[in-house]
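Fold this sequence, please.
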Amino acid sequence: MVREYLLRDMYFFILSAPLHPNATNMLKLKMKTDPLWVKHIAEQNIEEILIDHAYCEQKAASSAISLIILFPEHPDLVSQMADLAQEEMGHFRMVHKKIMDRGYTLGRERKDSYVNELVKFIKGKGKGREELLLDKLLFAAMVEARSCERFKVLSENIADEDLSTFYHKLMISEARHYTMFIRLAHNLCPNFDVDARWAEFLEFEGEVISRYGKSETIHG
């Protein structure tokens, strides 16, 4: 019960303090995105940002479906991932509409090098099902946390008012998804120290993201 309150409070703190310097710290991320990324890169490449974002949403939906296929023995997981897959495809449609409204075309999928590097953290032979589930849930939580942080920076710094509002709304969704995955990890993986594993993953992600922040992609 205490953990439920902590996750709830974290979620609302992130949303209610858009300019508070500690909001990103509540996500426990080791490195913040430089707002200059928005001005110097994102704003100069809106088409690329939107196209990459659309595929991020599609991949999130696919990942949710993958968790259903891999771990069908957990009814709560199956139910929440089914809802998530539908929501993420709804976000895909929303981003695709932004693309079309601006006269752009979706184009081919963009490579997400950041996510591909994160995958290395969860790879490893000899893992049991519970440990594998834990790592996959924390992987999903990490992607949602960084996306939440990026959407927050975009919403607060982009000059385009339409996209500022759009990314603020999506930031709210990412914060909710992040807390959902952390909660599922605690509930479904009782034989592991979830907090300790999450701390290790945060250190790993901090090293990975230090090499990014220079390209026209959501995680780049």
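Residues 37-109+128-209 form a domain with the Ferritin fold (CATH 1.20.1260.10). Residues 99 and 105 are 6 Å apart (CA to CA).
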